[in-house]
Amino acid sequence: MIFKNIVLAGHAGMGKTTLMEALLYQGGKTERMGSVAAGNTVSDYTAEEMKRQSSVYTAIGNIMQNDQKVNLLDTPGMFDFAGSMLQGISAADCVMLTVSGKSGVRVGTKKAYCAAKGKPRMFVVTKLDDDNANFYNVLTELKSTFGPSVCPVVVPVIVDQKVDSYINLIEMKAYRYDAKGVAKEIPMPTAEQSEKFSYRIDGLIQAFSEAVAETDEALFEKFFSGEEFTQKERIDGIHKGMQNGTITPVVCVSAQTMEGIDLLCKEIELLIPAPTENDEILAEDQHGDPVVLHPSNQEPVCVQIYQTLADPFVGKMSMMRVASGVLQSGMELVNASTGATEKIGKLFYLCGKKQQETASCEAGDLVAVTKLNAKTGDTLCDPSRVLSMPRQTFPKPNYSVALHPLARGDESKVATAMQRLLEEDQTITYQQNSLTKEMILSGLGEQHLTAVTSKLKYDFGIDVSLTVPKIPYRETIRKKVKVQGKHKKQSGGHGQYGDVWIEFEPHPSDELVFEERVYGGAVPRNFFPAVEKGLQESVAKGVLAGFPVVGVKAILVDGSYHPVDSSEMAFKTAAAIAYKEGMKQADPTLLEPIGSLEVTIPDSNTGNIMVELNKRRGRVLGMNPSEEQGMTTILAEVPMREMSDFSMQLRQMTQGEGAFTLTPIRYEQLPANLTTEVIASALE
User: Fold this and answer.
1) 500-527 pLDDT, tens digit each
2) Beta-carbon neighbour count of residue 216 at 10 Å?
3) Closest CA to 264 of 60, 26, 503, 74
4) Using the 8-state DSSP alphabet, how is residue 549 labeled?
5) From the CB of residue 520, how many other CB atoms can be counted at a distance below 10 Å?
6) Do the Cβ atoms of 34 and 42 come closer than 8 Å?
7) Would you give the DSSP letter of residue 419?
C-alpha cells in the first residue's frame, strides 16, 4: 500500500478545517460534513476548539484512494499555536497551504511556507463561493510572493464575477457543479469565450506547460518544438517538479459547497510524491555519523514521535511516524535518546477523537501508541540498528504569566498536570520562581496560555487565574557606613549579650561578602560564624520594600562580649540589628532587572519599533540586516518591568511577522520616579 501524509497549514481562518471535512466526506470517511460554527467537525473536537471555533491542536484523519492511504493533518493557523503546526509539518510528506480567495496571502501563509522548506508544497485557494473572492488576484499575489515555482493546475472560469466552472489543466477538461456539489464535464471554453473571463485560459495553459517543460530536457525540447504534452507527461512533470521543489501547484475549491474537492483528490493521488519515493531520509548512528534511512518494510523498524497527547482518560498517547520497517504491537524498541527500552503496547489509527486498533503499521504510515515514556522528537529503533532522526525545532516562549490555583492545596495538582502538558506542547515552560515564589507559565501568546489553562480546567479539573508576574527587584546601598548592633537582655539567670560594630559598603557582588577585622579579642572568634549567619539571613529582606539585598560587603571591625551572657544567638541577633540600622544609613536604593533584547522585524516597521523601545526605556545598541530578506534585527537593552506586553504589541505592529528573544543579563538602579510606586506596591 502507498501512504501519503499531507498537512493542512496556513494563516488562521483560511478554511483548513472545512477543507479537511470536505476531503473526509469526499473520501467516504464521514457520512456528513461537519461545520466549524456548529462545533461538530472531526478535527476540532476539544472543548477549547469548539468554544473558539478554530483549531488549537493538530488533529489527524485519513481517507483511502484506490491503493493509497492518505493521512490528513489539520493544524492551527494562529501564531500562538505555531508549535502544533510544526509538529504536523514534521510528520508530513507534503504541505498543503490554504489561501482564502477573499483575503489572499497573509503572514501565516508565509510562515507556513518557510516552515515547510524541503518538503513538496501545494497551494489550495479556498472559499471561492464568497462574493468577494477573486482567484486570479490571489494567483498573481502568490506568484509575486513565492516566485516562479507557483503553477496553476486547477483554475476557475469566472462569469459575471461568480465561479461558473473549473478547468483541470492536467486533463484539459472543464467541469461544472450542481447544487449538491456533483461535477459534470462540459466543453472547454473557446478562445472567444475566454475573452469574457477575468483571466485568459490560453495564458494559463502556456504558464502550466512552461512549468512542466522545465522539469525534464525531453519535455523542454517537445515544448520548444510546439508539440502538446500528453496527460501522462503533464502528470509526471508536475509530480517531479513537486518532488524537487521547482513546482508549487495551485488548485482551487469551495469546500463548503464541495466544488473542486473531487479534482483536489485527483491531484493528491496523481501529483503528490509518496514517502517511498524519497530514498534518502537522513539519520545518525550512535557515533554521530550520517546514515541514509530507506522507507521500506524490509528494513529494521525505526519510528519517530512527532506529537504527544495528554489524554485524561487514556493517559499519554504518542503519535508516531514509521520511517522504516513494520511496527507491531508487543515489540521492544530502543529509545536512541535515552538508551531505554520501550515496549510497544496497543496501536491505534486516529480520525479526530475516534480510535481504530490495529496490529501493525507499515513504513510511511502514521499511528498512535499509548503509555510510552518517550517524548516528542525521540526516535525508537530495533536494537539491531539504533539511529537518531533529526528533531523538529520549536519557537521559544516569550510571553509569561503567573499562575494561581483558585482552590487551596491545588499547587501540587498543578505541578503534576503541567508535567503532562509540557510533554504535549514543546512551546511552553513552567517553573517555580525562587525569587518571587510564583508559578510562572510561559508560552507564545495570551491565547496560547489561555488554551493551556482551559485544558487544566476541562481535562484535569484545576481552576486557575492568571496575573502579570512580579518583577524580582533587588535592594542595595550607595555609601559606606559604620554602625553598632547591640543586643542586651536580662530575664533571670543567664541573660543575652552581643555587641558588634560592622562597616557596610557597596561591593560588586550578587551575594553578601563578609569579612572580619577584629583585633584584641573584642569579639571571640567562635562568634564570627553567628555574626555572618545573622547577616546572611537578614539580607534576604531589604529595608525599603522587603526585596533581597545584593552588592553589599559587611566587615566586622569591633564589638564586645560578656563571659557568661554572650552566645551565638545573641551575636546573631546583634548582627541583624546592625544590618537594619546600617541599611537605613547607607543610602539604600532599588535595582531592577535589565534584559538583552534581540527583535527581528520587517524593514518598514523599524522606525515604529525604535519609538516603542524608547517608550519602554530601552537603549538601542545596534541594528543589522537579518538573514531573512526584507527584515532587520535590532539589538537593545530594556528593563524587564516594561516588557510584559511587548509580545502582544510587537505582533500588532508587525501583523505577526516580528519575533524576539529577551534574556535577563544584570541589574541596574531603578529611576527615582518609579521607586515610590514600586515600594508602595510591595508593601500593600
Assistant:
1) 999 999 999 888 999 999 887 788 889 9
2) 16
3) 26
4) B
5) 6
6) yes
7) H
